[in-house]
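lol ok so funny story. i was supposed to be doing the assay writeup but got distracted and ended up predicting the structure for this chain instead. priorities right. anyway since i did it might as well share w the group, maybe its usefull for someone
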Amino acid sequence: MFKYRFFQVIMALSLVLLIISTAIMCSFSVFRVAEKSYKPSNSGTISSVMNNGQTEELSEFDAWVEYSIVLDALDGDSEQEYRLGNVYLSTENVMRLEQLADIKSKASNGVFISIVLLVACFVVIRRRRLYECVVWGGAAGVIIGIISFIAMAVSGSGIMYGIRRMVFGESYAELFPGHDVLPDIIPAGTGTKVLWVYVGTIFVGLVVTIIVRVISYKKSRPHKFR
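and the output, tada:
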């Protein structure tokens, strides 16, 4: 019986990892926007630092192109990949983008690892149908998601504070500090989309947990014979 308990605990922890990793990974997906719906966050002049050190105003299309280049670099692993097009990012912004790329990569790895562990544990515990661990993991994942959201909401410094300002204030200067164009070319409404994707993923985890709990409860009740 100890063996089954062990795999139940691993399965519960894997589900926690899956919910949180998926919420973080999905939050990055909202950053890419179609050119036809692109609106920069800054209503004033949008300028880009050129190779010759001069500045030049960007059209909405040009800003979308530069923004897309920066986003593509989130999947890269070299600082030079950010230095494409006409936007030359400050050292602070390059470091912040590399931090975000690292978070995205770890979240993706977390999703993969958790799915592998869930499948492996399910193969073991299905013999005795000990599925209550799914409820433990789902509930814990939702609780941790809520706690992390609250921690972000009350943060006063660092990258969490920058995300807080992006989500609640639609201000990107705190998330991407420095004297370049990056905060100005992020599309309007990005912060709100990130919030809804994160909260939505956590909510789905809660709904699935409740459904599994109800099914488990129904199946555990004694059958009625007539």
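The mean pLDDT is 76. The helical segments are 2-29, 60-73, 91-125, 132-154, 158-169, 182-185, 190-220.
back to the writeup now i swear
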